[in-house]
Amino acid sequence: MMNKSKQFSVTRPYQIEARKALHECYLHKQRALLCLPTQSGKTWVMLKFLEENGYLHNHVIFWTAHLSELLLQAEETLHSFPKATNVKYWNAKTKFPSTQLRPGSLVFTQIQSTRTFKYTKKHPTILVVDETHREAAKTYRNFEAAIDPDYKFGLTATPYRMDKEDLGYDTIAYQKTLLELAAQGWLAKPRYVKVSTERRYDLKIA
Questions:
Q1: How many angstroms from the chain centroid is the CA of residue 142?
Q2: Which residues are CB-neighbours of 20 under 8 A, at least 6 positions away?
Q3: I need a labelling partner for 85 at 20 to 30 A (CA). Which of 44, 111, 185, 200 fits?
Q4: What global pTM score does this model have?
Q5: Sign of the C-alpha dihedral, residues 8, 106, 33, 64?
Q6: What is the pLDDT of residues 91-149, one digit of tens each?
Q7: How far is it, in rounded angstroms, from Cα 145 to Cα 140?
Q8: Distance between CA 51 and CA 78 in Å, rounded?
Q9: Strand, coil or helix: what is 63?
Q10: Range of weakest confidence among 4-8, 24-28, 94-98, 112-116
Q11: Residue 6 forms beta bridges with which residues?
C-alpha cells in the first residue's frame, strides 16, 4: 500500500483549497461532502483538516466505512501526523464501553457492526463517512441517529446516485474531477483502448 505521508509530503493546491472549504462548513455547521477522485488524497485531506484545526484532539470522532480495508488505510494515513490520538476500533471482533470515549478519541467503525452501538454524547462529536455514496442504506442512518453528531463530513468520488437517493448532506464543500486534476498534472490522464474479441452478445428486451 502506498505510504500517504510520502505521497503528500508536499501539499497540493487543491488540497489546501479543500481544507479551507471544509473549515467554512464546520464553522457554519453544514453537513458537507468532500468529492475528489481516487488517488487524489481524500483521506489525507480530511485528516489534515481535522488535525490542523485541533479537532482530532478536542472532539470525539467516528470514522465509518463499509470495508475494513478502508479503515486500515485511514489509520495508516493518520500515522503520518506527528501528534497521536486515542484510536479505537468498533467491529465484529472488537468492542468497548462508550464511557471510554473522550475528546481526542477517534473511533474507526465498520458500519455493519454498529447495530449494537450505544453512545451517550458528552463531548463535541464529528462523524466522517467514507464512500458516502453508499450511505442510502438504513444502517448508516441508524448509526448517525445513535451518535447524534454535531458535525458530519462525507468522502466520495461520486456524490450523486442513479436512484437520486438523498444522502443527508447540506452541501458539497469541495469538488474536483479526475479530468480536472489530470489536466493540472496531479493525476495520470486516462487512456482508452478498444479491445476487439470474437464474442457476440445479443440483447433481448422483454
A1: 18
A2: none
A3: 111
A4: 0.85
A5: positive
A6: 878 888 888 889 999 999 999 888 888 888 889 999 999 988 778 788 888 999 999 99
A7: 9
A8: 9
A9: strand
A10: 4-8
A11: none
